[in-house]
């Protein structure tokens, strides 16, 4: 069980997730992960991604899962950032994830990988790599009603996700 203890320590700070690459860095083989999965200690989320069984679910799990499944360069993108923070009254069925790398693995139907060029402004919200809220609002211009984006902008400022300077600039862009 020493392997599981090591995995638990890492996964407990990452929405219960552990990747085969992280396990490899810890000296744990794919075979050992497979054995822990067969014993019911790990749940396989997707290719190379497992979740510890003792994880307490949170509403952000789906976003952490999506980013982890797409890969280390991935981040929550556009309207999914707004949905993650309950901004703009959006609730897409799909979680949009941006990445600069090519993704060849099969992803669950509710995750849409979008190839992006380097340059999107990203940050980490609650331990999940995301496009910044201000950048996500800009990204959604033309996809979401301007009134909802203006509301998202106001709410983003009040929640500390968007600066006043960003608000002024984006407000001009929305008009």
Features:
3-stranded antiparallel sheet; Arc Repressor Mutant, subunit A; 18% strand; 175 residues
Q: How would you explain this protein's 3D organization?
A:
- The chain is of the alpha+beta class and 175 residues long.
- The protein has two domains: 2-52, Arc Repressor Mutant, subunit A (Orthogonal Bundle); 61-174, no CATH class.
- It is 41% helix and 18% strand.
- The chain has helices spanning 2-11, 20-25, 30-38, 61-70, 79-84, 133-139, 146-158, 164-174, and strands spanning 17-19, 42-46, 49-52, 75-76, 95-99, 111-115, 122-125, 128-131.
- A three-stranded antiparallel β-sheet has the order 1-3-2, with helices on both faces. The protein has a three-stranded mixed β-sheet with strand order 4-5-6.
- A hairpin with a 2-residue loop joins strand 7 and strand 8 (128-131).
- The longest helix is centred in the C-terminal third of the chain and has 13 residues, at 146-158.
- The protein is elongated.
- It starts with a helix and ends with a helix.
Strand content: 15-25%
pLDDT < 50 stretches: none
Order of helical and strand elements:
HEHHEEHEHEEEEHHH
Number of strand elements: 8
Shape: elongated
Structural class: alpha+beta
User: What integer is the average pLDDT?
Assistant: 91
Let me know the largest β-sheet.
3 strands, antiparallel
Can you count the helices?
8
Strand order of the largest sheet: 1-3-2
What order do the helices and strands come in, and which of them pair?
Blueprint: H1 2-11, E1 17-19, H2 20-25, H3 30-38, E2 42-46, E3 49-52, H4 61-70, E4 75-76, H5 79-84, E5 95-99, E6 111-115, E7 122-125, E8 128-131, H6 133-139, H7 146-158, H8 164-174
Parallel strand pairs: 5-6
Antiparallel strand pairs: 1-3, 2-3, 4-5, 7-8
Helix pairs in contact: 7-8
